[in-house]
């Protein structure tokens, strides 16, 4: 039989997949580099159907002693990074296997916590940016009542920040500079079920086109049929008080 080439041996040995999440965060879940190497060694056997590999082999591969490997395994069990479970094969024989479900649960909790923290920080930054934008456009600091109203838009009404910015744009373009005017715009959009910036922009475009068409027909002596309702309906009292 011809001797196997290096590449044939390389392919025949197989590969062991390790998630980049684990490689990048193992220290954060309380895992040492030595424990990570033991995990990779154990994983290489488990992936090939050997749930309880010989510690002597692992020690030889890592260039250390069996006692040190046992110490690392026991520490990982103590730190809830792995467990040893008794499993029964199809022929009824029982054997001990290593299981790393606790490690994955720890990693999952870490990533979820980091995601939540990142989202909370982004939300905080967006809120601060919104207040800064409002103060810039209004040319003054907001008073406590106005700040409370903006917080209600975000926390109680759950208006999208970009929708609030669109309402601010309409307020500025109409020269109102009045939070009551903005609130009326936002309430009207909510009644029309315009819950995304894209939906608001489409409705505004349709209103502008409709208004332009109506104005053009009026100039040529053609009266528009039916009543044209603007995208935000403000009664005369609100407009006069703005």
Automatic annotation (TrEMBL):
Q: Please note every region of biased composition (Polar residues).
A: 213-226
Segments carrying the region annotation (Disordered) are 211-242
The protein, known as: DnaD domain protein
- Entry coiled-coil feature ranges: none
Q: Give the UniProt family note.
A: Belongs to the DnaB/DnaD family.
The DnaB/C C-terminal domain extends over 131-201
Where does the source fall among the domains of life? Bacteria
**Family matches, as InterPro entries:** DnaB/C_C, DnaD, DnaD-like_sf, DnaD_N, WH-like_DNA-bd_sf
